[in-house]
Amino acid sequence: MFLSCVFFPPPPSFFVTAMSVVTVVSMANGGYSETKGKHVQYSKFFHSNSEKSAAKQAKVSSRNGMLVLYTPAFLAGLSSFWLFPDEGFRFLLLKSALTFHFFKRIFEVLFIHKYSGSMTLESAIVITVSYFISTATMIFSQHLSQGLPEPSIDFKYFGVIVFLLGIIGNFYHHLLLSEMRKDGEKQYKIPNGGLFDKVVCPHYLFEILVFWGFAFISQTLYAFSIALGTSFYLIGRSFATRNWYQSKFENFPKDVKAVFPYLL
């Protein structure tokens, strides 16, 4: 059976099984909502919904908000080395990839990103909890796979390659975004360089690769559900971003795609 060649058998956990379904459905709905103009309230989309509604909500600075987003997930990855030691090389790769991913995000928040606004406290809390639960559940699901039959096709080394490609590409395009603004500048500009000449959100494209890297390293059903859900959400947000740029800049190139060069 194909599934047994690719995935570990589902663990005897109703929670993990339920979360696999909930993750895909909720993130796909989030991506669809982005394309319809219902945005998570941060970055350039902070005022895309009703300004009156946004004004009534508690806000935090983008820098502090993003730092809050990633720290609990980073700590979940870091603590897994202590909570689940010596559970095999695949588990070590997954823990390392997750921890490094969120360490990179914190590093970028502190030293790379340039900020121009704020985010609602409600959005910060929702995203923080989502990152933490998904990271902790991915680790727990891998723990539950210990002792179960290994998939007959081993994708973990392929997963490492996909993860590294994603993490490097994402970091590079974040650097390009940060270099667009001089110190003190807050206005948005049309991104250029790298894959920005082909797609408006190459950083999202490489972020998708990061999560598929997790999935191939892990080969658990939950990790694949996270990768699929993340893909749906970031594709939707990429379309919303492209629409935003087209509405703000008359000279925005019409041949630049949303997330996949020449395709989508």
Q: How much helix is in the residues?
A: 55-70%
What is the total domain count?
1
Structural class label:
mainly alpha
Which segments are poorly predicted (pLDDT under 50) over 5 or more consecutive residues? none
Q: What strand order characterises the main sheet?
A: 1-2
Q: Count all strands and give the number.
A: 2
Secondary-structure element sequence? HHHEHHEHHHH
**C-alpha geometry:** globular
What does this structure look like?
The protein is mainly alpha-helical and 264 residues long. The protein has one domain (34-248). 64% of the residues lie in helices and 2% in strands. It has 9 helices and 2 strands. Strands 1-2 form a two-stranded antiparallel sheet. Helix 2 runs parallel beside helix 9 (221-248), helix 4 (62-83) runs parallel beside helix 6 and helix 5 (89-111) runs antiparallel to helix 6 (121-144). The longest helix has 28 residues, at 221-248. It starts with a helix and ends in a 16-residue tail after the last helix. The mean pLDDT is 88.
Task: List the topology elements.
Elements: H1 2-6, H2 14-35, H3 51-55, E1 59-61, H4 62-83, H5 89-111, E2 118-120, H6 121-144, H7 156-179, H8 202-218, H9 221-248
Please provide a brief summary of the model.
This protein is mainly alpha-helical and 264 residues long. It has 9 helices and 2 strands.
Give descriptors for this structure:
about 260 residues; mainly alpha
